[in-house]
Structures are given as structure tokens and as C-alpha cells.
Write a structure and sequence with these properties.
- This is Glycoside hydrolase family 5 domain-containing protein.
- InterPro entries: GH (IPR017853), Glyco_hydro_5 (IPR001547), Glycosyl_hydrolase_5 (IPR050386).
- Residues 1-21 form the signal peptide.
- This protein has one domain (23-401): Alpha-Beta Barrel (TIM Barrel).
- Helices cover 30% and strands 14% of the residues.
- The protein has helices at residues 8-15, 40-43, 53-60, 62-75, 79-87, 115-127, 161-177, 200-214, 271-286, 318-335, 363-369, 452-460, and strands at 23-27, 44-45, 48-49, 92-98, 131-138, 187-191, 223-227, 253-261, 295-304, 344-349, 435-436, 442-443.
- The strands form three sheets. Strands 1-4-5-6-7-8-9-10 form an eight-stranded parallel barrel, surrounded by five helices.
- Helix 7 (161-177) runs parallel beside helix 8 and helix 9 (271-286) packs parallel to helix 10 (318-335).
- The two termini are 39 Å apart.
């Protein structure tokens, strides 16, 4: 039996280029777009708790908000983080960005200044031979009403053309900037919009307009990435936003799907059911000639219903670390291709870190405590073997137990156990957005303010693509 990922990881890079390259990356979450659960100290000010970046800046005022966020932008991610990401065997970073970093109107309480840090991060990525995906995490009016978009409330993006025009302006700016020679082709993907949940016809119209903007950079090595909107990858097969009647996939396109297991109704699944669904999802993307676009799992974590209520830090809980390791390797195997011609092209874990390094959401903490392999590019560091039945899934019957560690490790920020949110689950935002399963189901965090029933219904719709 092969270790999870197997020898294929080394062979894949030999033939794969552009949109088909194998990606093993992390999100730089909670940085240029803030989410309260990821950096709670910023959002709790003098006894007041703010639920979004909009609310924070509106409450603090622009001058105070700018000084607060400039300090955050300059310290939360640094060159040393990018160096550590490379040392962990990762080869790519996904950077969430809000529209207001580029297109900010006077009446909006946001502050700008993020762009120089985005530019610096891309140059660091170039230095350490990492690729970059930039995604529009927050669009004007909000595409889903969740805190990850900068504002909590209604879904107002599709209500007027101005919101579309402003987003296209941001995409044009990013496309023109990151094709410049100074970045050395580090940016390989620009994602049109993160986790939209509005009417499909309007979304497809926006995707066509967005693809027209970004596609001018295809010859420069930048692919157009779009989110599956929780319809699941098979419903987007044979899709070309630039020619909706083509009946085949467009070129230089990648599809982003997010897979989470921590939120209703999936938080009630048993361990065998979770692992079974992960395996089934991965197998679906490994089939040949399906018409499914090259697909990246752009967000996933180690949070499940089995860890969401845990108040024990992973450093003090051997069983928790053992489960995390199995869950990590199961998803790594499922989301990574094991042969040529497959739709699967890799993944981005959410996230590299949080302020207090919540164990289920912090890749760096997982490496420190041994429930994530020390070098994801080296299969010899994996614990679980792959089955011989051709599914590409881990062998769950393999007996592995996390080694004891003397004490919980502390990251540069703080011990995860020192904060009440370090319970293995997010409260809302990107990580708690609706997530799909192999069966097409979706789930939403109750804190997101969006009806789970609505998103589940959307996920089961048959798209006319």
C-alpha cells in the first residue's frame, strides 16, 4: 500500500501545468479581510463587540480604524509566515481580499491600505517559489450576507448594476497589476467571487462578465477561478462562461468548492460517515472524462461535530490529535489527484493560523503538534496508507495513534487554550459558510444569519449549465 498521496505527488508535477497543477496550499485568512472569530481581540473594543469589519470601522471611526488595521496588516502575516509555509511543504497561498481595498466610496466606513500588503505577500511568494490565488472575498453589497464579506446582513450584491461594475473594476485592477513582470508569474488564479448564494442566472451573468475581464491575462498564466456556489462540482461540468452554448469546458478555468463538516446538518455525522463521504467526494473528482472542470477545494478544515464542543486543547488530548491526523490525511488523499486527466487539482486549507491558533483551523499548530504531516510534499511523512482498491482513499483500518507530547505547544501569538473560542469550531464567516458534500448537501453555521434550508435547497438544484 502507498502512503496517502503516494508516489503520484512527485509524478503529477511532471505533466501538470497551469490550471492542472497539483496544489497543496493554505489560506491567509483573517488578514486583509477580517473575521471576528479569527482575530477576536480586534473586534472587542472597550466592552463593545463588533460583528464585521464594516461595523468595526463604523464604530471606531476611520482614523482609529485605519491605525488599528494598519497595525494588524503589518504584523499578522509577515515574510516569516511565508517562509514557514514553504518549510511545511506547501506550494501555494490563497489570499482573500475585500473590494474596498481597491474601490472604496466615501460613504462606506471601511478603510483602505491593504493593497501594499497584498503586493508584498505576492513578492514574498515569488521569493519562496509559491503560487498565489487572489479571491474576492467581499463584494459590494455582500454576496452572501456573512461576516467574511465585510458586512453582516442582506445579500445586496445582485440588486444593482453598480455592485457588478465595481467588482469588475477590482478584477480589472488585480489582473493588470499581477501580470506585471515584478511578480514573476506568482499569481496563477484570480477568483471572481467567494461563496455567492444568490440567483443562479444572475450569478452566471456575473461570471461571464468577470471571466471576460480576467481572461485577457490567460496568456500571462493567470487562470479564471469561480466558486461552485454550493451546487457541487458535477453541476458545473462542460461549462464555459465565455460561450455558454459550447457544451464543453472553457480553457484556463478552475472551479473552487468548499468542504466543511462542522455545521448543521453535517455536524451530526458519525466518524465512519464523515470519512465515507470524504472518500466518495474524492473518488468523484478522480473519475476520467466526466466533464468536470479542474477543481480545487479552496477551503476545508479539521472541525467536525466531534470536536466542535471540545474545550480540551489538542496539546493535552492525544485522542483529539489522533482523530485530527486521520481526518487530515483522509481529506488530503481525497482532494489530491492520483493520476493524470482527473478533475481534482488540489486544495487550500483554512487557515494557516488564527489569532489564538484554534486547533482545528490552524495548519501551523497542526504541524507543531504532529496532527498534520511535517512536510506535506513528502509522502514519507504521512501516517496512513492508501487502500489498494483504486479509490485513492486512506485505509481507515490502519492503526495509528498520535504520540504523547510533553505539553501543549504555544505559537507565536498565544496558546489556543487561553481563549474561549478555541473549541475546535468557528463561529461564522468563511469557515462557517455553507459547505457541500459528495451527495450535494450543504450546511450553514447558525451564526451566519442565513437559512440552512435555503442553502440546502440551492445545493440540490439541477443547474442548466
Amino acid at each position: 500500500m502507498l502512503k496517502s498521496g503516494g508516489a503520484w505527488l512527485t509524478a503529477a508535477a511532471a505533466f501538470a501545468t497551469g490550471a492542472n497543477a497539483v496544489v497543496r496550499g493554505v489560506n491567509l485568512g483573517g488578514w486583509l479581510v477580517l473575521e471576528p472569530w479569527m482575530t477576536p481581540s480586534i473586534f472587542n473594543v472597550s466592552g463593545t463587540s463588533y460583528d464585521s469589519e464594516w461595523a468595526l470601522c463604523n464604530g471606531l471611526g476611520k482614523q482609529k480604524c485605519l491605525s488599528t488595521l494598519q497595525n494588524h496588516w503589518s504584523t499578522f502575516y509577515t515574510r516569516d509566515d511565508i517562509k514557514q509555509i514553504q518549510a511545511a511543504g506547501l506550494n501555494s497561498i490563497r489570499i482573500p481580499l475585500g473590494y474596498w481595498a481597491v474601490d472604496l466610496l466615501d460613504f462606506e466606513p471601511y478603510v483602505s491600505g491593504q493593497y501594499q500588503y497584498l503586493s508584498q505577500a505576492v513578492q514574498w511568494a515569488k521569493e519562496f517559489d509559491l503560487t498565489v490565488m487572489i479571491d474576492i472575498h467581499g463584494a459590494p453589497g455582500s454576496q452572501n450576507g456573512w461576516e467574511e464579506t465585510g458586512i453582516v446582513g442582506g445579500i445586496e450584491f445582485p440588486l444593482n448594476q453598480s455592485n457588478t461594475d465595481r467588482t469588475l473594476n477590482v478584477l480589472k485592477n488585480l489582473t493588470e497589476e499581477f501580470t506585471k513582470e515584478m511578480y514573476g508569474g506568482a499569481v496563477t488564479n484570480i477568483e471572481l467571487m467567494n461563496e455567492p448564494i444568490f440567483e443562479l442566472a444572475k450569478l452566471q451573468t456575473f461570471y461571464t462578465a468577470g471571466a471576460e475581464v480576467v481572461s485577457v491575462a490567460n496568456s500571462s498564466g493567470i487562470n479564471t477561478t469561480f466558486h461552485d456556489a454550493f451546487y457541487n462540482p458535477p453541476n458545473w461540468k462542460n461549462y464555459d462562461p465565455l460561450n455558454m452554448n459550447s457544451g464543453s469546458n472553457g480553457k484556463y478555468l478552475t472551479l473552487d468548492t468548499h468542504q466543511f463538516w462542522a455545521f448543521p446538518p453535517l455536524d451530526t455525522l458519525s466518524v465512519p460517515d464523515i470519512l465515507g463521504r470524504i472518500c466518495a467526494f474524492g473518488l468523484e473528482l478522480k473519475q476520467l472524462d466526466t466533464g468536470i472542470l479542474p477543481t480545487i477545494v479552496g477551503e476545508w478544515s479539521l472541525s467536525t461535530g466531534h470536536t466542535a464542543n471540545s474545550t480540551t486543547d489538542s496539546g493535552q488530548d492525544r485522542d483529539k490529535r489522533t482523530w485530527f491526523r486521520e481526518l487530515f490525511e483522509a481529506q488530503n488523499a481525497a482532494y489530491t489527484p492520483n493520476g493524470p486527466g482527473q478533475a481534482s487539482i488540489g486544495w487550500y486549507f483554512w487557515s494557516w493560523k488564527t489569532e489564538y491558533d484554534i486547533d482545528a483551523w490552524s495548519y501551523r499548530k497542526g504541524v507543531e503538534q504532529g496532527y498534520i504531516p511535517s512536510n506535506i510534499s513528502d509522502p514519507s511523512t504521512y501516517a496512513y496508507p492508501i487502500t489498494t482498491d483504486g479509490t485513492g482513499c486512506i485505509d481507515g483500518s490502519f492503526n495509528w495513534q498520535a504520540p504523547e507530547i510533553a505539553q501543549a505547544s504555544s505559537s507565536a501569538t498565544s496558546s489556543a487554550g487561553s481563549n474561549p473560542t478555541s473549541t475546535g469550531t468557528a463561529t461564522s464567516g468563511s469557515a462557517s459558510a455553507a459547505s457541500t458534500t459528495a451527495s450535494g448537501a450543504a450546511n450553514v453555521s447558525p451564526a451566519s444569519g442565513v437559512s440552512a434550508a435555503l442553502v440546502i435547497a440551492l445545493a440540490y438544484l439541477v443547474c442548466s449549465l
